[in-house]
Design goal:
It is built from six helices and eleven strands. It is α+β, with helices and mostly antiparallel strands and about 270 residues long. Bound molecules: zinc ion.
Length: about 270
């Protein structure tokens, strides 16, 4: 599933193609991926200019010249790309938005866990936690003190910190030398400091590499990411730890695959 670095890369690669452009034609596929259901997206977008494209958590947020906003969430398999109008349309294309330079913004999502959600002029949902790249250690400490769950599970909770998923939770905990099983509220100040710094550095390096492509993820130009070859623990079961050569272990925690070094990350 695309996480913060992948979504940021999509935003960064789409910005030059989309911002300042006007939608001239909107086509929706047969499956309704627009929320709230029944909303008239075609009429709401037609002739509107995109004034801003930004990321919030794992959402790609569009601001229009009439002040309305909507976001696209890529879900598990979503791809959002700018294409020439002549490019062949992929199966499972749910949105084709033709721009005033005749290029097309296309949203493809075979498994349909993604969505296009109209926000109108309402503010962001208050349920999202802080952005990890801008987060202070003291804020993070407060968030972690609020849950009894294991730190790995807490990191996946978008209300505690927004934008992290399975890959970057595992990578950040390994970089910080913290067991995924440690109860979040039992982390001490030194551990929270290390984790705050590790999350930022892992996410920044992943953005620098254009994100991780495991299966479907591509950026706004249709290109795969490069960070998957630099994963230290995620999907590295049985391989030697980068620091201590102990075999990386995989367990299932809260229903999710969790990868860690049993030596560097002991409880
Ligand atoms: Zn190790």
């Amino acid at each position: 599933m695309p996480e913060l670095p992948e979504v940021q890369t999509v935003v960064d690669t789409l910005q030059p193609c989309i911002v300042g452009r006007r939608f001239v034609k909107i086509e929706l596929g047969p499956h309704d991926v627009v929320m709230p259901g029944g909303f008239g997206l075609v009429a709401a977008l037609r002739k509107r200019t995109v004034t801003k494209l930004a990321r919030r958590a794992k959402r790609i947020v569009f601001t229009l010249d009439d002040g309305n906003r909507f976001f696209i969430h890529l879900g598990m398999t979503g791809q959002l790309t700018a294409e020439s109008a002549a490019a062949e349309r992929k199966k499972h294309t749910h949105l084709v938005a033709t721009l005033d330079d005749s290029r097309q913004l296309r949203f493809v999502d075979p498994r349909r866990f993604g969505e296009i959600r109209w926000l109108g002029r309402s503010p962001d949902e208050a349920t999202l936690g802080p952005e990890p790249l801008a987060m202070r250690q003291s804020t993070f400490a407060k968030q972690l003190a609020s849950t009894r769950r294991a730190i790995k599970i807490a990191l996946l909770d978008q209300r505690i910190v927004a934008g992290i998923g399975n890959i970057y939770a595992d990578e950040s905990l390994h970089a910080a030398g913290i067991s995924p099983l440690t109860p979040a509220r039992e982390l001490d100040d030194a551990q929270i400091g290390r984790l705050t710094r590790s999350i930022k550095s892992v996410l920044r390096r992943a953005i620098g590499a254009g994100g991780s492509t495991l299966r479907d993820y591509v950026n706004g130009r249709g290109e795969a990411g490069g960070f998957q070859s630099r994963h230290r623990v995620y999907n590295q079961t049985g391989k030697p730890c980068h620091h201590c050569k102990t075999a990386i272990k995989r367990i299932v925690l809260g229903g999710r695959s969790t990868h860690f070094c049993p030596k560097c990350q002991h409880v």
